[in-house]
Structure formats: structure tokens, C-alpha cells
């Protein structure tokens, strides 16, 4: 048997986790699977920050070399996506995270630890949750950002399984 990967998103004060999210849309509401038609990001403002992490089920020996980056999709003029890995969860807000621009190459991808702070996720034992550490994302825009929908992006979380 092998590991089965799931995306999770955490939201709200006190942290409510949603497993198996269906999208990672940035919006003007702190909720998973945001409908951007109803809650678009206003030009010149930021989206609510997103706290995501991977979760593994199934059976595996070791998950190693975990990394995250934006692998596809162009930014529109005035749009920036900020990202940081291995951060602590705080109630999401529209305040600028102060994070760096998201890497766009595998060679510069963010290294992601386990939720316990290790560089790998070993299977078994009571101290192993099967979660990666949090990855924080935020879409930031300028007043000059082109109005309307932004381009679709693909975010990649890559790992080795042994």
C-alpha cells in the first residue's frame, strides 16, 4: 500500500480544518473553497491569507523531500502571490503577510517540514500526525491590477515516498 495525499485548509478563529478541499481560490472571505464570483478580491487589496497543508493517509515508510511552488499559470499585471512554509496558524486576515513571492521553479521551491517540525514524515507511532507543516498563501493586488478574474494557477506539493 502507499500514501494517499489530501489537501487541507484551516480557517477562522480557533482553527476549523477542512480536509479534501476542492479549490484554493483566493477571495474576500475566510472560508475553504471560496466562490470568487461572490467574494472577489478588490483591486488594491489583499485576499484573506490561506493556511493549507498536506495530509497523508494509507501506509508508507517515509515521506521526504517535501517542496511547494507555483508550477503553472501567469500572474496578471499588479497581482502577486506571497508564500511561506513551516509557519504557525493564526486567524487569517487581509493584512499583508510580509512573506516572499511564491517560488515559480522547482529548484527554488519552499522546503516543507512535517507538522512536528521534522524534514520527513515517518509512518507509525503516536507522535506522527501525517500532516505537513502549514503553508501560508496570500494574493496581493495593486489598484492598477486588471479588473476581473485572474488567470488559473497550479500549485505543486512534491514529495518522495519510500
Describe how the helices and strands are arranged.
Blueprint lengths: L2 E9 L4 E4 L30 E9 L3 E11 L6 E9 L12 E2 L8 E2 L9 E2 L11 E8 L12 E8 L1
Antiparallel strand pairs: 1-2, 1-3, 3-9, 4-7, 4-8, 4-10, 5-6, 5-9
Task: Describe the protein's architecture and organization.
The protein contains no helices and ten strands. It is mainly beta and 162 residues long. It has a single domain (3-161), classed as Immunoglobulin-like (Sandwich). The strands form two sheets. A six-stranded antiparallel beta sheet has the order 2-1-3-9-5-6, with no helix packed on it. Strands 4, 7, 8 and 10 form a four-stranded antiparallel beta sheet that branches. A hairpin with a 4-residue loop joins strand 1 and strand 2. The mean pLDDT is 93.
What are the key terms here?
single chain, 162 residues, mainly beta, Immunoglobulin-like, six-stranded antiparallel β-sheet, globular
Report the span from N to C terminus.
Answer: 11 Å
Largest sheet: 6 strands, antiparallel
Number of helices: 0
Total strands:
10
Q: Mean of the pLDDT scores?
A: 93
How is this structure best summarized?
The protein is mainly β and 162 residues long. It is built from no helices and ten strands. It has a six-stranded antiparallel β-sheet with strand order 2-1-3-9-5-6, with no helix packed on it.
